[in-house]
Amino acid sequence: MSTQWDALLTHAITFLPALIAALVIMVISVWVANWLAKMVQGLLKRRKVDHELTVLLGHIARWGTIGLGTAMALQQIGFDITAFLAGLGVLGFTVGFAIQDVSKNFIAGILLLLQQPFDIGDAIEINGYGGKVEEISLRATAIRTFDGRLVYIPNADVYTSAIINFTRTQARRLDVTVGVAYGTDLNFAKSVAQEAVAHIPGVAKDPAPTVVFHTFNDASVDMTVYFWIKTDQIGIWEGKDAAVRAIYDAFNREGIEIPYPIQTILLNQVSD
């Protein structure tokens, strides 16, 4: 009997360090899991991400870390988790294949949150839809277009598409096309247009506005005025509106005609 107790005691003493190490691993993993979950949720809240998505990703970070710590602790005390992980992998593959569209959008949403190509409230353009980002959910990104429509684009499509972020662009080039009448001093018209646009608040001085004459129309010689705006001072539509008004007023002051198409009709009188 004493021999059995001695063997049991010896085994317990031998097993004790591994058990203590496993407990330490679990305590550390729980601490790290809680810290990581708070960090993830805090980061997403600062980015104004959807509340449900913020909570879900926080839970994933917490339980994923705890699961990893549990696996390490079990290995520490001699538990072979290889078969369990293999079975879990097969199950995960099967479920993932069955819901691949959902999982693609979910994973793409996480990658978008990590890479941050845009924030809530940014003006962007994706797949021909331009507007402000209203929401980044588990399935899709919601954009309020400039004409008021609410468009939901699947996250997988967003992640694989070209994204134009107007908000993060510090400068944007705009253009306005206008025609002047034949007989107009083109150099004078060019300087008047450049000067008019250059004095608009929010228009960049460097590079300065430029004018290019490019088309002979029926009633006019057309030119395009190119200029850069500082997007933190003036919006795209405001900049274009201000440029059209400034050029129009300047041409009126200087007597530069902006013609409209004229048709000449020749009538032949037919005698009886």
What does this structure look like?
This protein is α+β, with helices and mostly antiparallel strands and 272 residues long. It folds into three domains: 2-98, Orthogonal Bundle (Helix Hairpins); 117-165, SH3 type barrels (Roll), CATH 2.30.30; 171-254, Alpha-Beta Plaits. The protein contains seven helices and eight strands; from the N terminus they run H-H-H-H-E-E-E-E-H-E-E-H-E-E-H. The strands form two sheets. It has a five-stranded antiparallel sheet. A hairpin with a 4-residue loop joins strand 3 (140-145) and strand 4 (150-154). It starts with a helix and ends in an 18-residue tail after the last helix. The model has no long low-confidence stretch (mean pLDDT 83).
Q: Give the C-level CATH assignment of the largest domain.
A: Mainly Alpha
Largest sheet: 5 strands, antiparallel
CATH topology grouping of the largest domain: Helix Hairpins
* Domains, number: 3
Q: How far apart, in Å, are the first and last alpha carbons?
A: 143 Å
Q: How would you name the oligomeric state of the polypeptide chains in this document?
A: single chain
> What does the radius of gyration come to?
34 Å
Tell me the fraction of residues in β-strands, as a range: 15-25%
Elements, N to C (H/E) = HHHHEEEEHEEHEEH
What best-fitting shape do the alpha-carbon axes yield? elongated
- What share of residues is helical? 40-55%
Mean pLDDT: 83
Number of strands: 8
* Class by alpha and beta content: alpha+beta
**Arrangement of strands in the largest sheet:** 4-3-2-1-5
Number of helices: 7
CATH architecture of the largest domain: Orthogonal Bundle
Low-pLDDT runs: none
